[in-house]
């Protein structure tokens, strides 16, 4: 990776190197999303915003638009930047509504499927911030019932 070579040359810390690498990734992903080329779901966008380098990427994205390097529309870029900056830590990483212990209590055997189930439930939670624990448990029970038929 050119970013990693540059980071080593500049003697950046591992944390700074990660921020540089992810910033460049975000500078490819976010404008494409905003342009409607490779749109992310609400959950996908929130997961993307968890990456280090977001603040830098948003600054550069804004500067690129102001300098005419991109033509997404300044109002669109600024609105998008404000939207992403408004996400709170709990918007991006909400407390899980269901845990592995809940899956065990429902009779599931621990294993790799837990990761998939919990990821799917988190996706639903990121998409719909009004989803309750009761809703999540009901979805889970319905899924288990459908899988056993």
Structure overview:
This protein has helices spanning 2-9, 14-34, 42-48, 54-66, 74-86, 89-92, 100-105, 113-127, 133-148. It is mostly helical.
Reading the helices and strands in chain order gives HHHHHHHHH
- The gross shape turns out to be elongated
* Low-confidence residue ranges: none
**Rounded mean pLDDT score:** 91
Kindly report how far apart the N and C termini lie. 49 Å
| Relative strand content | under 5%
Structural class of the secondary structure composition?
mainly alpha
Major β-sheet profile: none
Whole-angstrom Rg: 19 Å
How many DSSP helices?
A: 9
Number of separate strands: 0
The helix content, as a percent range, equals 55-70%
Topology:
Elements: H1 2-9, H2 14-34, H3 42-48, H4 54-66, H5 74-86, H6 89-92, H7 100-105, H8 113-127, H9 133-148
Helix pairs in contact: 1-2, 2-4, 3-8, 4-5
Structure summarized in a few sentences:
This protein is mainly α.
Defining key terms:
single chain, 149 residues, mainly alpha, 9 helices, elongated
């Amino acid at each position: 990776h050119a970013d990693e070579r540059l980071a080593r040359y500049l003697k950046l810390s591992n944390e700074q190197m990660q921020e540089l690498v992810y910033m460049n990734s975000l500078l490819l992903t976010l404008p494409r999303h905003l342009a409607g080329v490779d749109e992310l779901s609400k959950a996908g966008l929130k997961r993307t915003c968890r990456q280090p380098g977001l603040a830098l990427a948003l600054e550069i994205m804004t500067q690129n638009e102001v300098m005419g390097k991109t033509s997404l529309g300044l109002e669109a870029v600024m609105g998008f930047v404000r939207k992403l900056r408004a996400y709170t830590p709990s918007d991006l990483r909400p407390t899980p509504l269901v845990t592995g212990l809940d899956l065990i209590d429902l009779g599931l055997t621990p294993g790799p499927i837990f990761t998939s189930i919990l990821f799917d439930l988190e996706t639903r939670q990121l998409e719909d911030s009004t989803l309750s624990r009761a809703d999540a448990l009901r979805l889970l029970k319905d899924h288990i019932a459908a899988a056993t038929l």
